[in-house]
Write a structure and sequence with these properties.
The protein has about 500 residues and is of the alpha+beta class. It is about 45% helix and about 10% strand.
Length: about 500
């Protein structure tokens, strides 16, 4: 045999072996042996054999991913009854939610890892996948991060189907579209993109799906993986451009405005795009209280957000470079407090800010039962001890404490972290250039904010570009009677949220 013939024969044999590895074998024992070798004999892969005079079958399932009651009642018992009462077992009927016919080896692996039970029949090259996924899951509970006084108490859990159901219970329309995809070579994590057809912009929907389809990674363990991969890569920004929430009512409200939600299996936090800065400074409760109360709270929240960024820098600039701007009684009191303090104002504030950040991080990492107590007591004890030791002035402790309290009013945690970072930048500029450095830093932040886009939508909308109607839900919230339009930059051509009605005429009463 020549060398060329040997190579052709070897190539053809390799091709046949490759084809055999891709299809389901017609022998039941060979199929079971194949998957036991893949998962390991001591793994949680289980096999249940069923047999009659005319048929032999095996049911493969992963013990930790299936609901035992569904498997026993709706698969094994049903198949046993049909085996006993049927002579020609060519077809069978199951009472599970889903059943799929499989012809490839990769399909069997994919469905096994999703919690399906795979039914093999001896002598057949097809298998059937029965929906039996379940197991222990965290129930739907109240959100521990986004709390409200009035409003729904439900929060997402780690099941993607439960989370999609929580959204569908609030948006009862067939226009709510769901695009599902498995991402991760090893994790095979289910990711769903939700949008309302006719309200969300088609261009933005295609862009979101396109970015998700391009993800090529070994595993997705949290929605942050998706967030960092699909956000705009052209420009770095400390400001988040993708909103996240663990409340289904918040996500449903965004969908009704024309936004797009991304739900990831295994995490209770859903993503939402496009995101603007107003979305991060809005609380769920703004829509569950009267509009006048909500307007006051929104103004207060916006003021404290700005205060949490500029207050330390402003304090340093005034005491170091612009004492003439401080009233005389106040400057005398502050100067008296600072007598004997060995550090400059900037170093003093920076040390206190870093100490508070350490305490805050320690409070988060410690167990819940002692974390809050440690952070509060630690802050009080360290602050008082530092003042008594003459390391810091009382005014510095007050400024740092007021800054910290102001940062706690920010409803979105990720933009609150951004404020913490910018605080140190403005503190650094103020320590060298005074008020000019502070104003210069604020101008840089505004220019940067104006350059950010979230899936093509300007970050500062409706401020820049200016949309007068959208200001009704920006710094204040007007009555629902006056919010008849969806956000102009976000929604599609269908911008009517509420139909215009005639004003009710007063009723004439006769005596």
């Amino acid at each position: 045999m020549s060398k060329e013939e040997k190579e052709k024969e070897q190539t053809s044999s390799e091709g046949k072996n490759g084809e055999d590895q891709q299809v389901i074998l017609n022998e039941l024992d060979e199929n079971v042996k194949r998957y036991e070798e893949i998962f390991g004999k001591d793994s949680d892969l289980s096999v249940r054999y069923l047999q009659s005079d005319h048929c032999k079958m095996g049911i493969l399932f992963i013990d930790s991913l299936v609901e035992k009651e569904i498997l026993d009642q709706h698969v094994i018992r049903v198949l046993n009854n049909q085996l006993e009462n049927t002579v020609n077992f060519d077809k069978f009927i199951l009472s599970t939610n889903k059943i799929k016919e499989l012809t490839k080896h990769e399909e069997v692996l994919e469905h096994l890892l999703q919690g399906f039970s795979i039914i093999f029949m001896d002598g057949q090259t097809t298998a059937f996948a029965a929906e039996t996924s379940g197991g222990d899951r965290r129930p739907v509970t109240e959100s521990s991060v986004e709390t409200v006084v009035r409003g729904p108490r439900e929060a997402f859990n780690e099941s993607i189907m439960t989370n999609i159901g929580l959204i569908r219970r609030r948006v009862h329309t067939p226009k709510l579209q769901v695009y599902k995809k498995s991402i991760g070579k090893e994790s095979k994590t289910s990711v769903a993109v939700l949008f309302i057809d006719g309200i969300a912009k088609e261009k933005v929907v295609k862009e979101v799906i396109s970015r998700i389809d391009k993800i090529n990674i070994d595993g997705i363990l949290d929605s942050l993986y998706i967030e960092e991969i699909i956000e705009d890569p052209k420009r770095y920004s400390p400001f988040p451009t993708i909103f996240n929430s663990e409340r289904p009512d918040r996500i449903a409200a965004g969908l009704l405005e024309g936004r797009i939600a991304i739900v990831v299996d295994g995490t209770p936090v859903a993503l939402m795009v496009p995101a603007t800065i107003g979305l991060f400074l809005t609380s769920n409760e703004d829509y569950y209280q009267r509009y006048d109360i909500s307007s006051f709270m929104k103004i207060l929240r916006g003021f404290t957000f700005v205060l949490s960024i500029i207050l330390p820098g402003l304090y340093v600039a005034l005491l170091t470079y612009h004492q003439e701007m401080i009233p005389t009684p106040l400057i005398i009191a502050i100067t008296g407090q600072r007598e004997g303090v060995p550090f400059g104002t900037a170093i003093e504030v920076a040390l206190m800010e870093i100490t508070f950040e350490i305490l805050r991080e320690a409070g988060i990492r410690l167990p819940k039962t002692i974390g809050a107590a440690i952070s509060i007591v630690g802050g009080l004890v360290l602050g008082q001890a530092a003042v008594d030791a003459g390391l810091v002035a009382q005014g510095t402790v007050i400024v740092v404490a007021l800054t910290a309290i102001s940062s706690f009013t920010t409803p979105s945690y990720n933009i609150a972290i951004t404020a913490r970072l910018l605080r140190f930048v403005l503190l650094f500029l103020s320590s060298f250039l005074g008020a000019f450095g502070l104003i210069f830093g604020l101008l840089l932040i505004l220019v940067h904010l104006n350059s950010i886009r979230s899936f093509g939508v300007p970050y500062l909308t409706p401020i820049v570009p200016f949309h007068k109607d959208d200001w009704r839900d920006l710094f204040i919230r007007v009555s629902w009677r006056d919010m008849k339009q969806r956000p102009e930059e976000i929604s599609n051509e269908n911008q009517n949220r509420m139909l215009k009605t005639r004003k009710n005429r007063p009723i004439n009463r006769r005596n």
